[in-house]
Amino acid sequence: MKAIETHNLTKYYGRQPGIIDLNLEVEEGSIFGFIGPNGAGKSTTIRTLLNLIFPTRGGASVLGLDIIKQSRDIRGLIGYVPSEINYYGDMTVNNLLSYSASFYPGRSTRQISQLAERFDLEAGKRIDQLSFGNKRKVAIIQALLHHPQLLILDEPTSGLDPLMQNIFFELLREENQRATIVFSSHALDEVQKLCQQVAIIKQGRLIAVESVDKLRRTSFKKISLEYESDHTSSIELPGILNSQRVDSHHNFMFSGESKCLLQALAQAPVTNVLIEEPSLEEIFLHYYKSEDQ
Amino acid sequence: MNILQRELRVNRNNLLVWALILAGLGILVMAFFPSLARQAATLEKVLSGLPQGVLLAFGLEKISMADIMGFYATKQYTTITVFGSIYAILLSSSMLSKETSEKTIEFLLSRPIKRWEIVTAKLLAIIILVLIFNLLITCIMYVTLLSVKTQNFSMRIFLLLSLGALLLHLTFASVGYLLSALARNRPLTSLALALVLVTYFLGIASALTPKLGFLKYFSPFKYVDAVDILTHATIATDYMILMALINLAAIILTYIIYRRKDFAI
Predict the structure, then answer these.
(1) B238-247, pLDDT tens digit by residue?
(2) Which candidate, A79, A85, A97, A84, places its Cα nearest to that of A152?
(3) What residues of A are in contact with residue B262 (Cβ under 8 Å)?
(4) Are A86 and B110 within 8 A, CB to CB?
(5) In whole angstroms, what is the distance from residue A88 CA to residue A24 CA?
(6) Which of B1, B6, B110 should we substitute to test contact with A (largest number of A Cβ atoms within 10 Å)?
(7) What Å distances lie between residue A179 and A25, A27, A32, CA to CA?
C-alpha cells in the first residue's frame, strides 16, 4: 500500500489551473518532500487530498482510501499542519488542543502538556495572543496529538526559529518510526535535511521525483563573471552549463570541481566575480537540461 | 457533539443580550397598558380618527388596543417578530460562513468528520438557540401580562402568538442558514437583514389594498399575522404548510450545497 497515490489529479479554479495531471506516489514510511515555488500547486494538492476542495478530474487515494468517498476515515489517520494557521482566537491553547482531540474518539491521545513543554509553549494563553511562531507550534502539536499514520505538513517551519526547527525535525524523525511524512517547502535546504525523496512541482505540474542523495551530488553554483572589456574569449571547463555571454558579462551554472574553477578564474582577466546558490527553480531547470544532454 | 457544544457556548451571551433587551422592552411597553385600559374610550376615539390606511396596515380596524391581547399583539408581538427574526437570521447566516471567513474551516475539515455532520451540528445549535430565545421571551412576557392585566386573557391566544413568533424565527433561521452555506468568504449579513426588513414591509403593503393582497405570500410575517391569530384563534393550515416547505427546502439546499463546496482559502 502506498501512503499517497494520485492519478491524473487535476484541479481548476474556474479557468485557472491549480494542478494539472498530477501523478504522484509516496511510499509508506518515507519522508517525502514536496517542493516548488509559491503558487506552484503544493497547497492545492494537499487540500485536494484532504477533500477541502474537489478535484476537477482524476483521483487519489491516501493510505489506500479514496479521497472523496472515504475522506473522513482518511482524516482520522492523518495529522495536518496548514501553511497558514487560522484557529479560533477566543480559545486558549489548551482549549484548542482538547477541542481537536475531541474529534478523535477512541484514539488514545498523548499528553498535551508534554508536547507543549517540549515546544516551550504556554498552554494557558489565548490563540489570538500568540505570535506567528507559537501558532505554528500549536498547529504542530494538534497534528501529532492523535498518533497519525501520515503527517502532512504544508510549509511547517516558517515562523520557527532555528532552535525550534531542530526540535521539530527531531520530533519528525521520531514520528517517522511509525508514520509517513509529507513535507512541502519552497526551500531546498530544509527538505534536504530530512527527506529521502522529493517531488518538484511547478505551475501545477509535477516536474520530477528524485532522491535527495542524487540531488545533493549535483551541487550547482551560479556564477556571474565580468571580463576586461577587450577580452573576447570565455572560460571553458567541464561542468559549465548554460553558458551565456553578453558583451563582457559571462553567466553560467557550474557543477564541476571548485578547485578547477578557481584556477581558471585566477588565470582569466576577470574584473568581477559573483558565486551564488542558485534558486530551486534554476537547479531543477539545469539539472534536467543536463540529464537530457 | 463537540461542535454543538462549542456553538452553544460561543452564542450564549449574544442570545441573552438579545432576549433580555427584547423582553425588557416588552416589559416597558406592557407597563403602559393599565393606564391605557383606563382611558379606553378616549383611545378608541383617537384611533378612529386615524387614516384608514394606517388602521389597515397595523390591523387596528379589527382588534382593540384596550384589550390586553389586542394591545400585546399590536405593540409587543410586532417587535418580537421583527427583532426576533433579525436575531435568528443574523445567528444562522453566519453559522457556517464564519468558519470560512475566519478560515477555521481548514481546521474543522481536517478532523475526521463528515460535512453533513458539521451542517447537522450547527443546525441543531441554531434550533436550540432560537428555542431558548423564544422560551425566555415567552416566559418573561407571560409574567408581565399576568402582572399588568386588568381582565383575563386567552391563554390559547397567547400561546398561539408565541408559537407564531417561534415558527417565524425558525423560518428566517433556515433561510439564513442557506445563505451561510452560499456565502463565499464573507457572511451575507446585509442580504440577511434586507430579507427580514423587505419581507416585513411587503407584509404591511399587502394589508393596504386588496390589489396588493398577493404580497402576503412573500412575507412570512403575514403567515403568523397577529390579527389573523386573534380573530381566528388559530394559525391557518396553508400558512403552516408553506412555512414547513420553506424550512425544509432551505435546509435540504444547505446540505446539498455544503456537500460539494470547495474551501480554497
Answers:
(1) 999 999 999 9
(2) A79
(3) 52-54
(4) no
(5) 34
(6) B110
(7) 16, 11, 11
